[in-house]
Write a structure and sequence with these properties.
- With 318 residues, the chain is an alpha/beta fold.
- The strands form four sheets. It has a seven-stranded parallel beta sheet with strand order 3-2-1-4-5-7-11, sandwiched between helices. Strands 8-10-12 form a three-stranded mixed beta sheet. It has a two-stranded parallel ribbon with strand order 6-14.
- Helix 7 runs parallel beside helix 9.
- The radius of gyration is 19 Å and the shape is globular.
- The model has no long low-confidence stretch (mean pLDDT 96).
- The structure holds 2-amino-3-ketobutyric acid.
Length: 318
């Protein structure tokens, strides 16, 4: 990776991954692109930024050609809950956007990173110790775009030699960026509620167990996978990766160790509950561990402590 294009650069993963990539590869070598206006602050003003709708194949190709990109980190997508609300648009952005990226990558010989998700699994998948290679029949439009995306990326690798690699991310927890429209968003919202109101009304049930990961590990995983010698990879799209697995009740109990008066109640959102209930509880990520030495740094206790410290500081500084 020498010259990278990041799509969805102002989104949940992009807003944290792009600055890290800029510090590693040089600000001018990480081209940030997003369909939303850039937030204020150092990023993305620290380097090149384009307004881009990934469905606009010509503009996408113009940016890649002009900057002679060798890698596309393709993060632009609708998340699960918002996709369920706008399924046709979710298919259009998630699939046609990916197809445009793969076509540009084929023509300009770029590597591609594609973030898949636990959403690529469905109710028929073994929910515990979910194998790397298993049944994938998701029931959400988001999951359908993710499993189709995995297959399309593998197709471009096999048929056109495009160096595609991907991760099946669990719910991602960030101290910096608020998630937008995912079914695991509760695991971020709860920290703001705990620190400001000492109470949180959770939209998933107390016992909904899901895989989760703290954002520094999610970013480290993407960079590590993309810089691994390809001869080590037996799988490509996409690797199971997880760092912890918990229920809302367990997360609340961990927060209570720091804020004893914190309370949680449950006001279940049927749409997001149905989505989350169709996902695995705990994935087996041994393929990622064996093929490219995946190791998370943050478990539940370490993540909660860091989130509380970082968000408290953020709230204090306004
Ligand atoms: C979502 O809920 O859509 C994401 C995911 C697990 O892919 N957080």
């Amino acid at each position: 990776m020498k010259k990278l294009l990041v799509t969805g650069a102002t989104g949940q993963i992009g807003a944290e991954l792009s600055p890290v990539l800029r510090s590693l590869y040089g600000a001018e070598n990480v081209i940030a692109a997003a369909n939303h206006p850039p937030p204020s602050g150092e990023f993305p003003a620290s380097g090149p930024f384009y307004r881009l709708d990934v469905r606009d194949a010509d503009s996408l190709e113009r940016i890649v050609a002009e900057h002679r990109c060798d890698t596309i980190i393709h993060l632009a997508a609708l998340l699960s809950a918002v996709a369920e609300d706008r399924p046709q648009e979710a298919w259009d952005i998630n699939m046609n956007g990916l197809l445009n990226v793969l076509e540009v990558a084929r023509k300009h010989r770029c590597a591609v990173f594609f973030p898949s998700s636990i959403g690529a699994f469905g109710p028929g998948t073994p929910a515990n110790d979910t194998p790397q290679d298993t049944l994938q029949r998701p029931t959400t439009i988001y999951g359908i775009t993710k499993v189709s995306g995995e297959l399309l990326c593998d197709y471009y690798y096999r048929h056109f030699g495009v160096d595609t690699r991907g991760l099946r991310y669990p719910g991602l927890i960030s101290s910096q960026v608020l998630p937008g429209g995912g079914s695991t968003d509760y695991a971020v919202e709860i920290f703001y509620a705990a620190l400001t109101r000492r109470h949180y009304d959770c939209f998933l049930s107390a016992e909904t167990q899901l895989d989760m990961m703290y954002m520094p590990d999610a970013i480290g995983a993407a960079i590590k996978l993309m810089t691994t010698d390809p001869s080590q990879l037996r799988h490509r799209n996409a690797f199971n990766v997880t760092a912890m697995s918990f229920t809302p009740a367990e997360l609340a109990a961990e927060i209570r160790k720091h804020i004893p008066e914190f309370t949680i109640a449950y006001a279940i959102d049927p749409v997001r509950q149905a989505i989350a209930s169709s996902w695995p509880r705990h994935m087996n990520d041994s393929a990622a561990r064996a093929e490219w030495d995946w190791r998370p740094r943050f478990d539940l206790a370490a993540m909660v402590q860091d989130m509380l410290e970082k968000i408290a500081a953020k709230l204090q500084n306004g």
